[in-house]
Records
---
Amino acid sequence: MKKILVSTALLAGVLSYAGGFRVSLQGVKQLAMAHTSAHAEDASVAFFNPAGMSFIPSKLSIVAGGFGASNKVTFQNLNTLQSTSTDNPMGTPLYAAVAYRPIENLSVGFSFSTPFGSTIEWPSDWEGRELVQKLELKSFYFQPMVSVKLAPWVSFGASYIYAKGKVDWDKAVTQFGGELNIKDEKASGSGYGFGFYFRPDPKLDVSIAYRSPIDMKAKKGTATFQFPSAAIYPLLGLDPSTGQDKFTATLPLVEEYTIGLTYKVTPKWLISADFNYHGWERYSKLTLDFANAPVGNQPDPTVLVAPKNFRNSKTFRLGTQYAFTDMIFGRLGAYYDESPYTDDHFIPETPSFNTYVITGGVGFKLKQFGVDLAGGYALPQSRDVRNAAIGFNGQAKAQAFYFGLGLSYNPF
């Protein structure tokens, strides 16, 4: 039983670090229009499709922004009717980008973003404490990129992605009256992105982009056990003075395909739509190799392999913008985001729901400067949890909202 409790918890914590869900908060203007991508007014297009830099009106464009993201998850055990809710702190995703066109048909740029990460905090004594009490995730993407205009109506762009990340996760080991913290601050990986951006007509923009999977390599992860009795540590091959063990793992982040369209119905009114496809089936299994702890399920007892039944998922987005004047813009949008797993694979470490999101915002343009405000309200669909593998059954509900402030500067 000891081996099952420890193994399940470690897998859940590391999986969430790999990004059990995608956080769509990489542009304030984009969020207001359902986070659609075919917008090349400034450098915020760089994250979505590097090819879009070729169609930015100014030679130099700089953008930066941040979000507040609040969410609450409630789980109810349908046998006891006991209900438990999270007390999550506010998440603060950030982004920044710069694009510069040194010569007529060549643009270069750089994008910084935080596309994966959140914090979830359950009560320390709740019924799922052996799975998770608190989990903090952070990820950072650094993307240098280039775009070449192949013709007046089409461009090609590519980027290199360097990713850094952190996980800090607490859970209870109730069988021994102890706790476990798993932590890694130096996981990293690399990937790439590329895309084509088309403007066959002044009224129509088409964006086609691909972001590769990334294998995040954790080489110096630390698992720290705390037990009331020193006699327990030798059972796990641990030094009682530290209670620590090391682990290594390769953690896959998923690929993403995007097709986006923007059509200018009138000079003042445009409509945008996106389709995203996420390759979550990469999570067929997860392997961890511990230095000493015999918590594995392979011939080598320090190696732990677990199947993960994630599935590919899709997102559908629709947004619009209307220019009330040359300086004031109103925006609305809505999108539907599929969960990457079914009810019988629900996990409280990275709770995910089929979700409808309503978005809106305003933008102000003051000569070379732009200020954008956006908000979003999520309507996650409740789930009947039936995860027999971890003995987790009941009903899960959630609510979430987002708001953001973005700044842009196009000097020339």
---
Amino acid sequence: MGKALIIGAGGVASVVVHKCVQNSEVFEEICIASRTVSKCDALKEKLDGGKTIIHTAQVDADNTDELIELIKGFGPDVVINVALPYQDLTIMDACLATGVHYVDTANYEPPETAKFEYKWQWAYKEKFEKAGLTALLGSGFDPGVTGVFTAHAQKHEFDEIHYIDIVDANAGDHGYHFATNFNPEINIREITANGRYWREGEWIETAPLEKKEVYNLPEIGPKDIYLLYHEELESISKNIKGLKQIRFWMTFSEKYLTHLKVLENVGMTSIEPIEYEGKMIQPIHFLSKVLPDPASLGPRTKGKTNIGCIVRGLKDGKEKTYYVYNVCDHEECYNEVGSQAISYTTGVPAMIGAMLVMNGTWQKPGVYNVEEFDPDPFMDALNKWGLPWQESHNPELLDLEEKATELSR
């Protein structure tokens, strides 16, 4: 059907490449591009020889001119951005300059500030409309599948959705004292930032990891979950009509949080530059270099993830609850594509989003989040490409009433 340029060569990019090669009827030709071309070449060497033609290239994703030159030379139908969130805008600029559709998995954040907002990318809406191009934002799992899950619930299960709790649980064990499951810098910035959730049109801010619950997850069991801010809250609260509250929760072990607190206390998680041997560096940059590479966790990690949405609202005038989720096995992911489940659950939806843009199913000029499109083809593709979803119409609920009372004070 067409050609895709994949920018990035880390753990998620590796999954995207594997899945594009599996889906050769759509992805007839791909180019893997990164600052470190040897990583791209290694992926090509591993997967070359099938129906999908694979190219590699070196590119600095911070440099729009380099990106434009690469895109013009390869001529893709879509650019799949699985580089760093700091590079979203330069890649979007390059897509506009070359007339190519755009897909990413995480919203832009400025390097100098730990701030997760869509405003910078939403500001491109008119430019993409005028260019007749689609920019699909957040086509990973969370954000991504979680947005599709809410759109599915809105279309098929509810007349009105009032409450959404997104729960992201990783029960995998990699054997290290401390490691992050994706880019250490992005991961630590996310966790150490203040929590936030949305209720009745307002954002309520909490201290980092201040709010904790215990939730019994299918196939994983009871886990400590902590309230975080996550970017899909911003878009879902805007796009799901009638919503009263949406929150995001993630699991962390005591060991993980203890290590993180020590690192934070000694300043290693800071993004404030310090002088070291005559150079200005951010401590978190140094920390990210000494921690295990997330791409190396695949062969070590055992256990499962469970990510889903607990939804409460009205159907035919009656209260209804609904839980839609995916359980993913780390070892099964590694056996299939050589990655752990965190990379797998992000990379598969990135391929699916790009496929739906390329084949015209989700192609509409402008800048959109996944929940703004028809969820059905995406939900069908999840079952086909390795992330089958499950549902419950009688799930265990988080304590909504207690939170409602607390928020009204």
---
Amino acid sequence: MSNTYKSAGVDKEEGYKTVDKIKKAVGETHNSNVLNHLGSFGAFYEIGGYKNPVLVSGTDGVGTKLKVALDTKKYDSIGVDCFAMCANDILCHGAKPLFFLDYLACGKLDSEIAAEIVLGMVAACKDNNCALIGGETAEMPGMYQPGDYDVAGFCVGIVEKDQIIDGSTIKAGNKIIALPSSGFHSNGFSLVRKVFPNFEEEFEGKPLYETLLVPTRLYYKDIHKVLEEVKVSGIAHITGGGLYENVPRIIPEGLCASIDESKIRIPSVMLELEKRGEVAREEMYGTFNMGVGMVIVVDAEHAEKVLHLLDDAYEIGEITEGTEKIDLKF
């Protein structure tokens, strides 16, 4: 019997099935700016309506949160996570997402699982007025074990050059406003899985995995609602490294984000992890978002308007003079 690609572990037909299962849904994310369809070698997106446009791009994955999804066979939220981790990053500069591409790698392709993951991306793209214009599915036996999947995404957005937000206008006296997270989002899951090895255990009346797999919150509508009404000086997406690593990225030299930890609304699942894993509070804040998914910095005179525009936002501190860039008071 002669060797074939299929005998080596790669089933092209399963890839074709995946495309068939997602093609219609992916097409529903397209608008008149998308100039080609799924199956081309490259994806084309026409830009119009801007005076001095700047493209803003971001790429990310889901990390070991995928293990929770794979072990519990719950795949629908992972695509949302992948999109959100990329799109939320470019929002920090005031950009609107234009289009998204995905990369899905596995040991043995199952078109049902692959389609479920991609359809999560489709739902997230629709929610953010973003087109899913391309992607790649790689079946790599020997690199990944059967049942293993990895996923990454690439998001491109746009902003007028004179409207770019980069933190450079932040000044002492500005207020720091938190937008709540929906949970762990997609960070710190190596520690989450170590402390919570049994995803099926009951937590607050339901299987723990349901809490762990709540998808990363999408902030597009919230951020742009604020940008339409208020001059924003800085935005930080709180991902890996937590507040400690992400807030300083937008703080100019000579200034400090002074944050009152007692004001932060920490989710109960994070408090349970802290207690059960005997994790120091400082380590928690350096690993997880601790309930703060986004931080917005605005002039003090605009703070109340932001809180009015966003029902669940709340103030956690202010900008002061200092050299540390962040002072998280416990």
---
Amino acid sequence: MTTTSPAPAPARSPAAAVTGAAVVAALGGLLFGYDTGVISAALLYIAPQFALSELWQQVVVASLLVGAIVGVGLGGIIADALGRRRTLSITSIVFTAGAVISALAPDLATLLGSRLLLGFAIGTASLSVPAYIAEIAPPEKRGSLVSINQIMISSGILLSYVSGFLLAEAGAWRWMLGLAGIPSLLMFFGLFGLPESPRWLVARGRTDEARAVLRRIVGADRVESELSTLSGAVTAEDSVTYRDVLKPAMRPAIYLGIGVAAVNQLVGVNAITYYAPTLLTKAGFGASAAILSSVGIGVANVVFTLVGLLLVDRIGRRPLLLVGLGGVVASLVGIGLLYAVTDLSGGWGVALVALLITYEAMFSASIGLAMWLINSEIFPTALRGKAGSFGMFTHWGLNLIISLTVLSAFEAFTPSGLFWLYAVFGLIGFWYLKKYLPETRGRTLEEVEAVLRARARR
């Protein structure tokens, strides 16, 4: 027995319907950002309450990422079996449950369990949200609509910093964690009015339902042409195996997808996202001042993500990425120098915050944006889902490793040594991307594929 998609709302134009659906779905991105960022402030108060050593502080942060890796591994399977919209609904429930349990956690074990649950939701959302938006969006609006998810992630991180600052004086870490339940409930109820992905419906042979959804999101005059395109794409992808993905001709693209994801993590962005207040308190800042400084970092994240989105189709991927990555490396070198030659008192502390904000700005406008964009452009359509998973696992795996080592590395290498190590990784990444990343602006996916296949032959 099959279920039908919600009846279309004739009063809304196709553009309004698709934009509304994208915003509701992208609340999953907001939750992704909030739940990854909020621990940076909450950890200042969780650590003394549960008497956590630096190792266990890192475990609390990393538990979310363990769950995310599981979510990435299972999220695609769940979305293919149940549908994109139903998967998003389940994900919103898991987000809500994780927020409530973490806020009420009486002990460390419960807190870790709730973080694993939230991580699973984040991993699933990181796959399902952009996939759903891409599959309901008309081709001419797909880039801008999918980018809503990235803006939501950045906004979620900023909101987590703001809530941390507002609740810092009371030390109310439980409220910091629990507030994530509000957008997750909004997402759950908002999803009731959204259509299922027409692509998923076509893949399940539910053509009449797909036709009804397409009438709602692209207009009656384009239904049959879009339906024909979807049918061809589904047929092509169903015939692809991982053996096809790993053929020699695909290896340059696979290596590039992994390389972009690796550079994204190895320049240390999540050392700052997860631990900025902790690092600043170690540098002599008070708790409230450290959290307020992290709000500035969050603002830079959102603003320069928007700047990157405005520039990426104007100046191209390569110039934006390479200039931004150069700025990231310069910021890391400067941060290391400050730790090496000053005691960070007075104006030097302000200089440290300024360099952290500069770092976040350069990262957000370049490699932070490019990781997701490049992985969506370098693979043929039929292979994109399976091939893109290599970059996704690289991203989350390195994220986990870094989150487990930041505070220990801070002590082992000294602050200067740690930031300079990230700068070295950035320089290696700059060389690699300058050498191997083709410009994809203005090229069709087929033209990008031809460039990478030519490299494979060489």
